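B., you asked whether I could sanity-check this one before it goes into the benchmark set. Here's the sequence:
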Amino acid sequence: YDLMGFQECDDGDLVLRGAGLHDQYTIHRGMGQETTAICMAVLKSAWQEISAGAAVVAEDGDDEYFGKRGAQWVRLRHRGTGRTLFFVNHHGPLPINSGGKCGGEITANKLLSVVHDNAVQGDAVVMTGDFNANPSSATFHYLGQRLSRAFGGSRFGGIDSIFTNIGGNPVVSTHNLGQGGSDHDALAVILRL
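And here's what the prediction gave me:
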């Protein structure tokens, strides 16, 4: 895979070392707290990094409070085509479908602000994560005003998802790889840029 997003992941290096892939990927770690434990992996041979960052975009609600929730991003240029991609990885707030302390509309707007503030016009955008929100949520409704859901899992009503701004019919293939030791779906999508 060219890009991977992990949630509830403190050590992306450990994950990739275990799979024998560590040397092929650049790892981006989260923000150092349990609720911002997110990692991204970028295939070095396919992508050149332009910029990267992270931001707090939500906070868990009082009923199921663990902390603040982050989104990390990386802006990339494809080594073969020169096409640019803005990749976002997120682990959403609890309780499920609440959008956390500020609600789903605000959480979606903060995620979209990460894109607005850091992507460049013409970038393909791919946003992945355990959103802790399913298609019936306000978070999905407001994200859906700017991004299309390319694929989603089935666990917990479909809280694991991949969104994109790529127009037309960009989805080449989708695969639900199962749980693999997690309580979430591991998802794979191939998109045509």
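One thing to flag: The chain has three helices and eleven strands. Otherwise nothing jumped out at me.
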